[in-house]
Fold these 4 entries.
Entry 1:
Amino acid sequence: MANKELKVTLVKSLIGRLKSHQACVRGLGLRRTNHTVTVTDTPENRGMINKVSYMLSVEEI
């Protein structure tokens, strides 16, 4: 199984969000709106992405 990667972009602000949702975004390495990071496609990262999917844009690499 090849290590797949995901390109994750924060498209909505963290202001006024639940603390647990802010923690998931920080855990993915995102810092500010329109910031993009590349993360490995693991169940842990997928879980964080699914929890805050309404704030993110995700594409597979």
Note: The first strand starts at residue 5 and ends at 10.
Entry 2:
Amino acid sequence: MIDILIVTDMQNDFIDGALGSKEAVAILPAVIEKVKTFNGKVIFTRDTHHENYMDTQEGHNLPVPHCIDGTDGWQIHDSLKKYAGEIIDKPSFGSLELVRRLIALNDEEPINSITVIGLCTDICVISNAMLAKNALPEVPVYVDAKCCAGVTPESHLCALAAMKPCQIHIINE
């Protein structure tokens, strides 16, 4: 049995760049420690947009260009780069490629648990935690609250509360 850690979008633009926040900066030490000490497989996701971002539905709803493929803002934060062996680029909040990868890993060796951390709790963390739970309903899915930050502290708490009835376990609240 294998444990999986999904490190969601710990990219420069979400930490101290275009969409950065003091809350995102504040979780960085806890995220680094979690990744360093995790005993299992670590998979990073990377929000990935292109030059036409402002012409997309997301660009119309969030008119702040961010995580443009190849830019500094798109990169995994320097403090985490050395741990980012496997990276899945995702064009949206949730990643179907990540789901396919989890299913394939589970077929190779049963997954004992999936833990999701990163940014933003209320957008990409909740999306990927829900996708993982739906893809592998018998695998416990955890979200480590101390290793997540939302767009606002209030929306972070709302997302954590929304995941509980979907049988996603919230730890370190």
Note: The first strand starts at residue 2 and ends at 8.
Entry 3:
Amino acid sequence: MYLLGILLYVICLVSLSALGGNLSYFLNLPSLVIILALTLPMLLASGLLSDFLKGFSLMVKKVNLYSAIDLKRILEADKLAIQSLAIAGFVGTITGMIAILANLSEPAKLGPSLSVAFITVLYSLIFISLILPVRAKVSSILVTLEQEQVK
């Protein structure tokens, strides 16, 4: 179901982007690099990258193979990823705004610089929205495990 939901989400994103103009306006490699370059090292530094990836593997499995401790680590990794993505989006935006201010004397560069500044926030929000269903499922499984232990 996760893959189907993500597919529908991507279709909606592409459709909305196409309504807003040329799809190429929404593709920016430097913004994507900023987001990933500021998020992945945080997961690596915390030692939670493998737990973060476990969360996605859990989404495509029918049965939970992880312990409560593993699930809590996945939740912590997802929390860190969401926070890092939000920070990366804002860093990209601030960087873009600095570029805008540096080029105020060249009006032709303002529009493209402004779009790059905002696209990093868009990318971070898209990545965060891909993590939220993982958090919800892991939390749900964890609640079920805890309820079974009480019985």
Note: The mean pLDDT is 90.
Entry 4:
Amino acid sequence: MHHLILGAGPAGVIAAETIRKLAPLDDITLVGDEPEPPYSRMAIPYLLIGNVDESGTYLRKNPLHLANLRINQVKASAQKVDATAKTVQLDSGQTVAFDTLLVATGSSPVRPPIPGIDAAGVHPCWTLADARAIMALAKPGARVLQLGAGFIGCIIMEALAARGVQLSVVEMGDRMVPRMMGPTAGGMIRDWCEAKGVQVFTGTRVEAIEAGAPLTVRLSNGTQLSADLVISAAGVKPAIEFLADSGITCLLGVLTDEHLQTNVPGIFAAGDCAEAFDKVSGKTIVSAIQPNAAEQARVAATNMVAFAQGRVGAGELKGVTQINVLDTLGLISTSFGAWQGLPGGEHVELTDVQSGQHLSLQFKDDVLVGCNSVGWTEHVGVMRGLVEGQVRLGAWKDALLKDPTQLMPAYLACAQGQSGWSGAQDARRR
């Protein structure tokens, strides 16, 4: 049997390793479109800071690791999938047949439609090649303008600040990290960054970039800035364009079931390009974080082997949840689950501007379905556990609405087992 994996990021590598463990004699091909060994994009900020060298970003430190597992590596990118013929056409001109296929191509940077976005000195921050170009320009004192202050943008900003540049950030949204934080939390992060010396423009667009040394950047608020480097961090999207006309159902990402299988039997998806069920919101989502990618890869690989052996349902994804923990210049913020709330739900918010702390909890019935926090590090694990576990809080829901800081007592009372909660309630009645 031949298992073909498109994408050599964390999901692809973990899937290949899992298949090899479960099917020692099967053939495995791992297709990746970058010249370097498989690496983690999440390690690129640490490379920019100087905490690791390029080899420190590699997913596996032994250069012969995949070869020793008899995993065939191909340096190419997929151009077209023929689901009926079970073949993939690569940009190298090669056509590869498969028995099972995993789409694990991850995400690609969004290219904003801005005049001058292709000028010399304008770079995304997504690949090791991008990192090399940025390090060559982001010298101490260099004027750097970053386009985008979302989750990825804030991580990059941390690395740039550590390099000693003069940093300006432009965000179209009315606050920083608008897809992760509400107005109060996003505003607190902006205030923190400005206090650290970062110039922040929210509710602002980059209208044009004029080539030159330095670059000239025109903003929608009338401001004109000079920059030695412009970094485009305007977000990412699933890298699935090559699946057009393949017959594989795609929404925002590649739509999968609880086994990570697509609508085409034998074809699976995992990682940042996969759209899977979110048990909190009750919808399918793309949750582009590495822990989800790893778990999806293991489940998909298990089911690929089962499919090849004529079995079904060997592994099941328990669902995905939006999980984000962000360090922005030393300020820790979190976002879990349906942080904006669900229809018919209840909400409580606590803000202490002087101490730089903010906590927002969202409930549906007696379940914590989402939360935000800024500068509130004591209960990060508890918040995640309550949201992911869909723990029924009972009377503790009302207690948290009165005092949201009581997360730990609520967790201890309820999350140790719902039967224990019922027993505690009975004991109170007696």
Note: Residues 122-234 form a domain with the FAD/NAD(P)-binding domain fold (CATH 3.50.50.60).
